[in-house]
Structures are given as structure tokens and as C-alpha cells.
């Protein structure tokens, strides 16, 4: 067994035994049904070596992790013009906060809080019908993960559609400032659906490889984005990827990372590895509780913090 495999196996064994598991997201009823006892971890090294253990092949709702990929796609479509619609500063507020939008004239602080991600989705939608925009996002995920079996969990999307009142408020509020171009219900329909994409840790780690390797997927040699853009996406993940928990994540883990309320985290060790972890129970900021602890263990043992 390689050192990486040993570390991954030991972390998974430890995490499976822990009883402090956090709380599953309840505001999306379908996510409240997920068994909090699950834990998966997948790490893909620069040479393509995979170390994966636990529930690494169980699909889960990627939720806000999808925002990394919609940001990548939207930057590809509209370039740096995107930053006129969305900022790139940490918000210091919860992911679904409304308060800054009024002071800052409807411009969300960054593309990872819900308001920012809804504005990014609106940019992707601008060239398409909702169904086409969603197809584009899903195909992008399938392409990056090299797996055409990846799908959207319609039950999760419908569940959020019924209860996503805050997102409806955020989208309408931004619309009043002219930050949303399309009918709010179209933009939100695409947003709820891309959040409801289901993937495994293994698939997600494959999809994140371009961010760890200067914009290029080392397995195919294909350039997904320029190296400079990959660096910048990683910078926004580091500073904003965990909302008001971003400072704590950088302090403890020391890697760019993006969480989702499904309990997943995608983390990027530049030049070294793409990492996906999943533990459904969340901390108070809505980030995976054991996922963060596992990543802290991993980077400490392997010396992978970027600092
Ligand atoms: O819009 C929402 O509230 C969810 N679809 C996504 C939020 C989320 O994943 C926050 N991340 N930890």
C-alpha cells in the first residue's frame, strides 16, 4: 500500500468511528433524508493514482460544489466581464444571506454565495433556453468527470424548488437592480437543477483535476482553462469557498476548497492532487463537519497545505 493509500484508509476508518457528525441540511427536505453515517474520500494524485475509500462510490447531491463549475463555464462564455456582475471578495456572511445586497446595489460579493451563483447561472442562461443551459452544465460535468452516467436528482431539485424561498427573494432582489437578465423563474430553475447534480467522491475528484494542474486535465492533456484562470478560480475557492467558514478552512486545511450542503467538499492541492470528501452532517456554517476534519488530517499528514 502506498503512503497515500495508507493515509486515506486510516482517515476513513477514524471518521467512520466518530460520533460528532454534525447535522444534515434540513431546509431542503430531500437532503434531510440522507443517512449521516456515510463517509467517503477520494484523492487523485498528479500521476493519476487514485486513493479512495469508504463511501467514495455513493452518489450525493453536490449542491454548491456545482458553483465552481458554473463559474468556470460562465468565465469561458463571457470572460472577465463576469466580474462586473459579481464580486470576488469574501462575504463574511452565511451562504444565503440577503443583507449585503442592499448596501452593494444588488451586486453579490462573490460567485459562491447563493446570490452570486444565481447571477452566474443567469449569465450562462442568457444565451440559451433553460433546458439547453442545464444540458450545457451537465455535459460539462460529464466531460470533466469523464463519465456520461452523471445525472440530476430530480427529487432534490423539486424539493428545493418547493422550499427555496430565500433564493427566490435573492433573485428577485437582484432583478430589481438589473443584475438578473432572464425571468427569475428560469434562472432559479437552472440553478436548483445544477445544485441537484449527483456525483460520487471519485467522479468529483476526477472533475476537479484541471484545477490542480494549471487548467489542464493530465489524463487527457486537454486544456479546460488557461493556467491563469485556474489559479484565479482556486484563489476565489480559498477565500470564499466556505462562506463565513472560509478563514477557518484556510487556517486548518490550507487548500482551496468548495463545500456543498449535501456534505461534499472539493479541495485542490495545486500540482499534487484533486480531493473529494463527503460526510453529510454539517457544521453551523453549512459546511461538512467531518469533511473538513478529514481534509485537515490529510493535508497535515502529507504536508499539502499551500502555506
Ligand atoms: O441554494 C441553496 O441553498 C443550495 N442549493 C446550495 C447551498 C449550498 O450548498 C451551501 N453550501 N454549503
UniProtKB/TrEMBL annotation:
Catalytic activity: L-glutamine + H2O = L-glutamate + NH4(+)
Top-rank taxon, per record: Bacteria
Keyword Nucleus part of the UniProt annotation: no
Top enzyme class: hydrolase
InterPro entries assigned to the protein according to its UniProt record, in alphabetical order: Beta-lactam/transpept-like, Glutaminase
Gene Ontology MF: a single term: glutaminase activity
Gene3D superfamilies: DD-peptidase/beta-lactamase superfamily (3.40.710.10)
GO biological process assignments: glutamate biosynthetic process; L-glutamine catabolic process
A Pfam family per the record: Glutaminase
Residues annotated as binding substrate: 64, 114, 160, 167, 191, 243, 261
Keyword annotations of the record: Acetylation, Hydrolase
EC number(s) per entry: 3.5.1.2
Family indicated by similarity: Belongs to the glutaminase family.
Subunit relationships: Homotetramer.
NCBIfam families, alphabetized: Gln_ase (TIGR03814), PRK00971.1-2 (NF002133)
Name of the protein in its database record: Glutaminase
Organism, scientific name: Methylobacterium aquaticum
